[in-house]
Specification:
The protein is mainly beta. The protein has three helices and 34 strands. It has two domains: about 170 residues, no CATH class; about 180 residues, Beta Barrel (Lipocalin), CATH 2.40.128.
């Protein structure tokens, strides 16, 4: 199974320019194969006279899609909702999921393409993705081979037509020329109402979508660039500040992870008024004295979601809570530990879906690897409304019975009355020459209907080893 640690993710980011398309079957729920990119799936209905606006289409630009940033699966962490479905990246390849039929297709218009190398038009290697104004955008860190060595080119934003054609670079998130090593961090940028918010050298910036780096405006923090040709850092550094960005209405939020004076780390949420250009600290991870112990006690919450002036958060090893961003007061919404002590949650504006998985075992001690953020297993989804009211329990036993040896499930997103999750499955297969056996890799995208409890397979990616 792939280890979903920060180091592993960053290693992928540094090598995306060398990657290739992941093999995968493009199927409908009935099993039919497909190899055609979606047609007309990304029409900008906001521009069509008389067309009804979608919830994330504002009059002044497309809003940040909050529940598209909930995935607990590293290889399917980036999604964007369009008019009739979802764009996402699995491994290094872009796909489109049609919301009604469940059909999944790669964003490749090349006839008979095997999606097996970097010449495939669906290949992206992105670490951020969003859908805005009828176009798909993704961000990746480019490298170029020169005389047998690789030169860093920095963060670039690309725009793609809804059918995967017309890819073009539209902006760079490097504010200074790249000289040996890019200076920007790996924090994920977001797009909200025509503005791109991103982190550069420890500071938070914004500039217009498809704008020029010279238009970038610093709105928080101090740029620690000190001059020199190859300064800065290109790897995850826990001693530097890191940001998780969020937005709603005229407010952009960021969860700041930074060391305190005593060396301890504790997440704090800040709100930036994009009109007044003021920044205020509105919430901090509560202490054990307020909410009891949990898996990452005192450092960070397991999962959080901001909407309508509140932060909703789940504590693996604890319970479900809500924090009032105007007062800082936290209120328990549900004693989720009564259902499962540990778990992984995803939120939407209506629900919290909680999978009863558990921390992986530390091979050195044989005990739960608390605080590592790595979970496995899970056989039941518990659905709650945002006010903490239980809705239903959905068993996943049918998937355990049909998908082979499952190591774990990973929630991806909750939207339109459905939960999407990945099953890390496979079978033990013999190695050549009788050298034992090895687990084959098989990642399966599944859909759970929150009203009926029906569980179905959408598509799978197989890579026999």
């Amino acid at each position: 199974m792939k280890k979903r640690t920060a180091a592993a993710l960053l290693a992928v980011l540094l090598t995306v320019s060398l990657g290739a398309c992941h093999r995968g079957a493009e199927t409908t729920p009935g099993g039919d194969t497909a190899n055609a990119a979606p047609e007309g799936s990304g029409t900008d209905t906001a521009r069509e006279e008389g067309a009804e606006r979608l919830p994330f289409q504002g009059s002044d630009g497309w809003d940040f899609q909050k529940n598209m940033h909930q995935s607990a699966f590293g290889s399917l962490a980036h999604l964007g909702k369009a008019e009739t479905g979802y764009y996402f990246q699995f491994d290094t390849t872009l796909y489109y999921l049609e919301g009604t039929s469940g059909r999944v297709t790669p964003l490749c218009a090349k006839p008979d393409c095997a999606h097996g190398d970097g010449t495939c038009s669906a290949w992206a290697g992105a670490y951020a993705l969003w859908y805005s104004g009828g176009r798909l955008y993704f961000v990746r860190r480019d490298r170029e081979e020169r005389d047998g060595t690789f030169t860093e080119l920095g963060k670039r934003v690309y725009a793609v037509n809804p059918d995967g054609t017309g890819r073009r670079q539209v902006m760079s998130l490097e504010l200074r020329p790249v000289e040996g090593q890019p200076l920007s961090s790996f924090d994920e940028p977001i797009c909200h109402r025509g503005q791109v918010y991103f982190v550069y050298n420890g500071a938070l910036y914004r500039m217009p979508l498809e704008g020029d780096a010279g238009e970038a405006e610093r709105i928080w923090g101090e740029d620690y660039y000190s001059g020199g040709g190859t300064g800065g850092y290109t790897a995850y550094d826990p001693d530097e500040p890191h940001y998780t960005l969020w937005a709603e209405g005229e407010t952009v939020y960021f969860m700041l992870t930074a060391p305190r004076e005593n060396g301890a780390r504790r997440d704090a949420l800040y709100a930036c008024d994009t009109v007044e250009k003021s920044v205020d600290k509105v919430w901090e991870v509560p202490g054990e004295d307020q909410v009891g112990p949990w898996e990452t006690t005192g450092v960070s919450v397991s999962r959080w979601y901001v909407t309508n002036g509140y932060i909703y958060f789940y504590l693996s090893g604890g319970d479900m809570w809500r924090g009032d961003l105007s007062t800082g007061k936290n209120v328990k919404l549900a004693d989720t530990h009564e259902k499962t002590l540990y778990g992984t949650a995803v939120f939407s504006d209506a629900y919290m879906c909680l999978l009863n998985d558990r921390p992986m075992t530390d091979p050195a001690t044989g005990k739960p690897w608390l605080g590592a953020g790595l979970h496995a297993g899970g056989d039941t989804v518990y659905v709650y409304r945002l006010d903490g009211t239980p809705v239903r329990e959905i068993p996943l036993g049918s998937l355990w019975d049909t998908l082979g040896q499952i190591e774990g499930f990973y929630p991806v997103l909750c939207d339109s009355g459905a939960l999407y999750l990945i099953a890390d499955a496979g079978e033990m297969v013999p190695l050549p020459g009788g050298a034992g056996s090895q687990k084959s890799r098989c990642d399966v995208l599944c859909r759970v209907d929150l009203e009926t409890g029906a569980v179905s397979e959408i598509t799978r990616w197989e890579d026999w080893t």
